């Protein structure tokens, strides 16, 4: 495998372009100091694509995303686009990328950096040292299930307003098994424990989920400890005692909710990266898209207040999962940790007495400087 990697950078909307500019500094550092070579293309997604082309993702950009080793995405959305028709909303661009690239395993680590434990809404002793990984199914379930839509509710005289809104929670065995395998594989490289979450007490799709995860376990991963939990209890346990978990595997919608809750445990949404992975391509690398868990934060866009760390750590995940550069990823993660330990903070992480925050660009510069210090 060559040491040249192709990347498509889609900064998106709001703070996306600002945080992505800091990632580019980090990429440049790895090119200059680690003999890696990145072939970088840029494109539009979300509202910025809608403004330019009338669609949140053009076919041309979709095709380029399919052809590269990894896509790096900033964030999509903003109040300006709230009025748009559902089919052209910024989020549709992101969902199309996930679906057409078939990125079924969404890895959302929630790690509590020691320097930031006091920023969590929970007590330090509950979150210090937290290191969990949520594996969210990303290409199916209620996000994509058919039938869907808003329709007139026939001749139902009891329905004031006269309409019905429909979404379908639908999972096949195959969809469940493949994401379960991802979770078990990841658990083997961590603390070897998987907790699967669904609502098997009310949903047939939840019963199937539980049975199929158990099947994959019994037949292929009996060495990994597997437990099952109803997703509502899972939400409660996440805020009660989050360190009981290692890997959590769950469906698209529960994963959306549970990963936001897990994110907040760590003190700042601005810290959390994610990787969305699909099947291996011809070159052996998985189809992949990396993005911060946070959104486009339009209220602070363009002010240099955004925290670029989630986006930078997403690039660290790209180094690890797409490019097999685990050592480089660890170096980057250590550089982030060191900068935080030195008390360097963007505005989201400065308390009332926290001093003057650094800008987005200054944070990027500090992380690059920490990389150079080795
Ligand atoms: C996420 C986001 C997206 C989702 C939105 C932007 C469509 O909340 O990545 O968690 O719901 O999946
Ligand atoms: Mg979400």
UniProtKB/TrEMBL annotation:
The keyword Kinase does not apply. The record marks 143, 199 as: Important for catalysis. InterPro entries: IsoCit/isopropylmalate_DH_CS, IsoPropMal-DH-like_dom, Isopropylmalate_DH. It is found in: Cytoplasm. It catalyses: (2R,3S)-3-isopropylmalate + NAD(+) = 4-methyl-2-oxopentanoate + CO2 + NADH. Substrate binds at residues 98, 108, 136, 232. This is 3-isopropylmalate dehydrogenase. It comes from Paracoccus sediminis. The gene is leuB.
């Amino acid at each position: 495998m060559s040491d040249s990697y192709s990347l498509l950078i889609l900064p998106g909307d709001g703070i996306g372009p600002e945080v992505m500019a800091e990632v580019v500094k980090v990429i440049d550092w790895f090119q200059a100091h680690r003999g890696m070579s990145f072939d970088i293309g840029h494109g539009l997604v979300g509202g910025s694509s809608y403004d330019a082309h009338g669609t949140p993702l053009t076919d041309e950009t979709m095709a380029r995303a399919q052809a590269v080793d990894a896509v790096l995405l900033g964030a999509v959305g903003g109040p300006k686009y709230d009025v748009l028709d559902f089919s052209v909303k910024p989020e549709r661009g992101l969902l199309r990328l996930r679906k057409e690239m078939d990125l079924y395993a969404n890895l959302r680590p929630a790690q509590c950096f020691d320097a930031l434990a006091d920023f969590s809404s929970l007590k330090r002793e509950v979150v210090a040292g937290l290191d969990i990984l949520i594996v969210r199914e990303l290409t199916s379930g209620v996000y994509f299930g058919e039938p869907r839509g808003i329709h007139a509710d026939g001749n139902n005289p009891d329905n004031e307003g006269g309409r019905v809104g429909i979404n379908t929670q639908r999972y096949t065995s195959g969809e469940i098994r493949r994401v379960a395998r991802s979770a078990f594989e990841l658990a083997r490289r961590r603390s070897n424990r998987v907790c699967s979450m669904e609502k098997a007490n009310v949903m047939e799709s939840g019963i199937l989920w539980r049975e199929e995860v158990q099947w994959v376990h019994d037949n292929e991963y009996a060495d990994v400890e597997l437990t099952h939990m109803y997703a509502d209890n899972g939400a409660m346990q996440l805020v009660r005692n989050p360190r009981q978990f290692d890997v959590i595997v769950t469906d698209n919608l529960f994963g959306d909710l549970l990963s936001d809750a897990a994110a907040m445990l760590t003190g700042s949404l601005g810290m959390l990266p994610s990787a969305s992975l699909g099947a291996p391509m011809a070159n052996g690398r998985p189809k992949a898209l990396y993005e911060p868990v946070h959104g486009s934060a339009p209220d602070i866009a363009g002010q240099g207040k955004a925290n670029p760390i989630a986006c930078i750590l997403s690039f660290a995940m790209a180094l690890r999962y797409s490019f097999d550069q685990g050592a480089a990823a660890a170096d980057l993660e250590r550089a982030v940790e060191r900068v935080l330990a030195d008390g360097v903070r963007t505005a989201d992480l400065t308390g009332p007495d926290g001093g003057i925050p650094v800008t987005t660009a200054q944070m990027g510069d500090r992380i690059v400087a920490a990389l150079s210090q080795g």
